[in-house]
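Quality-control log, excerpt.
Job 1 of 2 completed; input and output follow.
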Amino acid sequence: MEIVMGLVKEGLWTCFVIALFAILIKYPYCNLSQFIALAAYIFGYSVLILKIKTMSKLLALFFCVLFSTSPLFAQEEAIFVSEAKETKEHPRLNVGDKASSFRIKDVRGNNVSLVKILKKNKLLLVFLRHAWCPVCNYRTHELLENYTNLKKHGYEVVVVYESNAANLLPYVKDLNLPYPIISDPEGKLYQTYKVEYSLAKAQASRTNKKMLAHYQKGNKLFGGKKYKKEKKEERSTIIPADFIICKAKKIEIAHYGEYIGDHLSVKNLLEQTISTSHGGAEHKVKTNVRF
């Protein structure tokens, strides 16, 4: 009986390890170094603590290697290739295209209408990711610090997040954001303005120096505060985008990011605006960045 129970335990352990590594290989944010590190940890744990027999460890290791070199792993590689191809062919709005109208309530319950905004101002329409995202927090502070300057030069700002309103509202209140914030968890506006979802670009962002710098600064700007995240948001592949919509309701600038945190430069936008108003004369703008 003891022999049978021992075999059952060994078999269950082997199945557990195989299933775990199969899931990890499929998981899009697990790179090779993480895979190896976790493999070493599990087998080290089995030797020192669980004292799993050698044959079972070797069997589990064999199947892990088999999985990592099988079509399952190749399928994951194919996902990256397919996603990269999709990125190149991603349909985009272009300069001169007509901007789609929208009339929607922001997280404070106020109506936000594109037509109404364009009667007085141009619109800087910004698509971010989530309230808890440090990179988005960095961009939010940049917009907040320069909002007065943007308004002075004829721009209104509207920012769209994928976070739901309940999770987004505490963040908006904490920063006392003066411009409309729209919650779009269903992604309707993202789809309307053809905002990109790219696994390949999201992956590449993890090693992008600018993104990492914005992540660190944005994380500090939270000041220790944490905002709720939904589980599905952790695997979001949204790549931010910015649009300038002129009073004629046409796209004047369409900026689609190449990585998470790649946004239209506020400084360049203001310099270009002032230069145009001065007949093309070069004019340097000092943006308000105190972080």
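Job 2 of 2 completed; input and output follow.
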Amino acid sequence: TYLYNCLFNTEALEGVLSELVKLPGMNQILGQRQSKWEKLHLDFTERREVLLYLEKMKWEQLNKGIGWEINMRSLLTGFLVLYSRLYSNHYSNSNINDKAHLPHIHNALKFIEENYQRDFLMKEMADSVNLSPDYISRQFKSAIGLSPIEYLRNFRIAKAMEKLKTTDLAVAKIGKSVGFRDISHFSRQFKQVVGVSPTVFRKNDES
């Protein structure tokens, strides 16, 4: 369980605040008056998307490298846009066509999450839901916002983050345990998603 207290001054959003307040759900965060909070019940992928933003902001705040305040404003803006999208997805009605494909998407997600540790074959996932690779890939991207390969990568990285936080396993072993066969590839993918290397991520979490 993670608890983050994200406090910020709206002055940090200068230049984009007028546009942000127009987005769905922003009245809860940026509104001038108190409004009843509506909870978002996020699935694994959504929680990890939120967590990645928070971890990146935490890292910038702790390290205060060159241009950190600029990057913090960018991350904060991105985080608020993500919140608005999640809010909109949860409180707006999906069209009938989208609902018809939800079971296929759910089964595809389940397949990835149960098989993320081994080599991934798109055809194998498609066969598991009785659809063609191209078709399920398009439907997956439309519903989740990520391709199956991108979702798999993020899922693996999320699992690696958990192990870096909760175990003393070597980085190379963690990479292999979540499906990366090459430590260099694991480190590159981790840094691309999280913003720092696995070693730096673990060090910052311990500080």
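Post-run check on job 2. The radius of gyration is 19 Å.
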